[in-house]
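Pasting as-is:
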Amino acid sequence: MSCVYKEHPTEPVIEIQVFSRVTQNDMDKILPQVEAFIEKHGTIRMVEVIEKFEGFDPMTLVDGLRFDMAHLKDVSHVAVVSDRGWIGMMTAAAAAVLPVTIRIFSMDEIDEARDWVLNAD
């Protein structure tokens, strides 16, 4: 599995870690879990840890965009953690147009990213 999904036990916070190529199997497992978490908590916060990224299976991009459009209002804060410079640049561009508070952190700031999301207003 190239992605790992975790839920905070008491707060409306999820974490998704990416280790390689995002596959359709990853999306089929993770997206229903995120939807159920949103149903349970309403608005959620998210940490995305991108350690290594080797692209998407083609349909995952379509599924991801559909999911994002349907649930954009359900996510208030996103911490993106990565040392890949282009990911930070793409995230900054997205943050400029999305109605979500997004911050970018380096891998050595992962604890700060988790704290920021956990304590976000």
